[in-house]
Amino acid sequence: MLRATGLGDNELAGPIIAVVNTWSTVTPCNMHLDKLAEPVREGVRQGGATPVDFNTIVVSDGITMGGEGMRASLISREVIADSIELAVRGHSLDAAVILVGCDKTLPAAAMALARMDIPGVIFYGGTIMAGHCKFRGEEKDLSIQDVFEAVGAHAKGDYSDEELDQIERAACPGAGACGGQFTANTMAMALAFLGLAPIGAGDPPAIAEEKTAEGVRCGKLAAQLVKDGKTARQFITETSLRNAATSVVASGGSTNAVLHLAAIAAEAGVPFSIDLFDELSRTTPVISNLKPGGQYLAKDLYAAGGVRLFGQSLMEGGKIEDTPTVSGETLFAEFNKAEETPGQKVVHAVSDPFKETGGLRILYGDLAPEGGVLKTAGYADGAFEGTARVFDGEEAAFKAVNDRQIKEGDVVVIRYEGPKGGPGMREMLATTAAVAGQGLAGKVALITDGRFSGASHGFVIGHVAPEAAVGGPIGLLQDGDKIIIDAEARRIDADIDWDARRAAFKPKAPNRMGGVFDKYAKLVSSASKGAVTIQTSND
């Protein structure tokens, strides 16, 4: 049957390597990956191996945001990992190169490689370029973040219908993943620090000519890994996971990385606690001036010197350790190749940081016995006290924000959005961005057992566990409760009679959606464990 596909004796004599593609025309993040597959195949051939192609899915976070479809996003991470495993193991293939773009395809690729423990390389399709328009007489660069925040500004009355339309039309100019240090670019950087993605391969923007050469390099590296007998779990260690987490904290990256690195560790069987992010945030500064907490986009980081320059700064500041990578060179050897663009303003030295402390905190307390994730990048790391405004689901919360019912000092609680309760743990960018667009970022706190997008900013706490659907304390809150958040003390509490609330509590009926959604809800673990569906040694 393989001969029928055109393979001859020479092709069958060497390793056969899966080129797994998440190409789709439904999203700019992945729409160019079909073209990048050919240089990958060429690299595999140059390395003395034979490529065979498989496809898997992508669910676009940006397109599904704010609607029922967002429930499919995190679930797709598991489906992508499962489908890669089935195709590769089913055909007894020797290795894989996985082409990734939108958010969940990146961690899914790493999870699949970790689960199978085969030689593998992850190739990130790259960032989108900045959108651009002339807005109120001034030239303005745009990202998807600007669109969601413009919705809030429009609701407030600051932007007209025409101005909102102008920003929406201009924000996304073509191929590539969302342009700030949002989830895709955060995870691309983290996977490079983890050692599974070649340093520099993901840096060029999606439309850059350099991307072709990087594809060839990834294909050749996969073939070499087979020859050297180097498999994924040799790169995924407690040290490399710590390096990856450091890159997230030091770049002001997405809270979703907490979930994804925990999931990758679970698949690899490596001990990992989300408390690591809190420890690192207290000792590691933010050294990049990147959106959403800063000024610049991923394409600006590339122009400044890329991930190599960012990593070199952390290396010289003593914040990371040397580890092997799929390139065949160590992390430090790769970072020593960095070339800094004179006058660049994106990457700072550890001794002269953009922000003194890292961008994430792990909070516990009455409301989050298993933890919650606070994103502080760009905002104070102190305390917040306010009055609870409680909503069962994102739609009700977004309507309240859009109707300008949320005021300074409120704590917006969005529950029944966790892995089981959603199901699917939706992101809340529409709500957080609308809050920011009304000038309330940092003046209003948002708490959810769901997730926040990498583009979210403000005083936002996600991944609260246990979630409401399994009886977590967040399900016991009522409008008017006093909520106390103390980032320094790692606490999130409510001043209420918890015993009385539990005695009167009536659990909400599960949100049955049928099909894969109900299957996921039955299998999925807590967000504090990565929201994975595999059986682990702790199950």
Please name the defining characteristics of this protein.
539 residues, alpha/beta, Rossmann fold, Glucose Oxidase, domain 1, 3 domains, 8-stranded mixed β-sheet, 4-stranded parallel β-sheet, 19 helices, globular
How would you summarize the topology of this molecule?
Layout: H1 9-13, E1 16-21, H2 33-46, E2 50-55, H3 61-64, H4 71-90, E3 95-100, H5 105-116, E4 120-124, E5 131-135, E6 138-142, H6 144-156, H7 161-170, H8 183-194, H9 210-228, H10 238-250, H11 256-268, H12 275-283, H13 298-304, H14 306-316, H15 331-335, E7 360-363, E8 371-375, E9 383-392, H16 394-402, E10 410-415, H17 429-437, E11 445-448, E12 459-465, E13 482-486, E14 491-494, H18 498-504, H19 515-523
Parallel strand pairs: 1-2, 1-3, 3-4, 9-10, 10-11, 11-12
Antiparallel strand pairs: 5-6, 7-8, 8-12, 9-13, 13-14
Helix pairs in contact: 2-9, 4-5, 5-11, 6-7, 6-17, 8-10, 10-11, 10-12, 13-14, 16-17
Give a description of the structure.
The chain is an alpha/beta fold. It has three domains: about 280 residues, Rossmann fold (3-Layer(aba) Sandwich); about 40 residues, no CATH class; about 170 residues, Glucose Oxidase, domain 1 (3-Layer(bba) Sandwich), CATH 3.50.30.80. Helix content is about 35%, strand content about 15%. β3, α5 and β4 form a beta-alpha-beta unit. The longest helix has 20 residues.
